[in-house]
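Researcher: Structure prediction, please.
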Amino acid sequence: MYEANFSEVAEFVFLGLSTSRSMQHVLLIFSTVLYVMIFLGNLLVMFTVSFDSHLHSPMYFLLANLSFVDLCLSTLIVPKMIFDLSSGQNRISFQGCVIQIFVLHVLGGSEMGLLIAMALDRYVAICKPLHYLSIMSPRMCIWLMVGSWVIGLIHSAVQLAFVAHLHFCGPNEIDSFYCDLPRFIKLACTDTYKLEFMITANSGIISTGTFLLLIFSYIFILITVQKHSSGALSKALSTLSAHLAVVVLFFGPCMFFYLWPFSTVPVDKFLAILDCLITPVLNPAIYTLRNKDMKSAMSRLCSQFLSLRKII
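Model: Predicted structure follows.
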């Protein structure tokens, strides 16, 4: 389908983050170390939530799914970037680029849905604690997870529907280290002004609207808690600060990519690194280092692992 609709371009060339070979070596080490941290950190969160019965609750169920999405998001981009930095090839097939864009938006939309679900979970837990177990039932958690993936699929399908008719005849150089939709569209051999506007409306405005919705929901929760008990405000603020940090880290680059009117390539690349390398590292750190239950569960698992090694 894509070969019939799109055209002669068989592959794209990434211009990457730097043309300096010494800087590429630094970036190679940096990205490799961070990807190992991403892989181990998010895997540890998923493993801990899955195998510790004390964490079998809606909040940690959603957190484990968030770690899974973060791990997939980084795996989609970072290993390819590491390979390109080490080999110097910096190429991707046309079909591979389209698939990368599609999966990237599926994962991005899914993470957006999960962050909304986590905000709902915190609202029910803090503002309606007596009804928490009945509202956030296992069935509701499953529906929230499925709904987040459906949101991602619909969002990505709509994005690709916008570009299904485009014709590509060259150039084929993408000034980045992965395929992103705005730069992909600019390579089309046609006027894409209206299309860029629709992409902005679909991704930029939705990202900004969701971000503001989440911020207002957290403010509403804090105001509600303060009215009922001023002593509980500090505890709620401590809980929500971790969620707020993750929301800002995720939505900040998204809003900049699609809504910033000026072409600032170095800033775009920096935020892209933030989105696929820094944020997936910080998410598990934020949720584990600030969470006593997670730290206790990890300690128990480590103790069980060490005792099992002694028996073996």
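Model: The chain is about 80% helix and 5% strand.
Researcher: Thanks, that helps.
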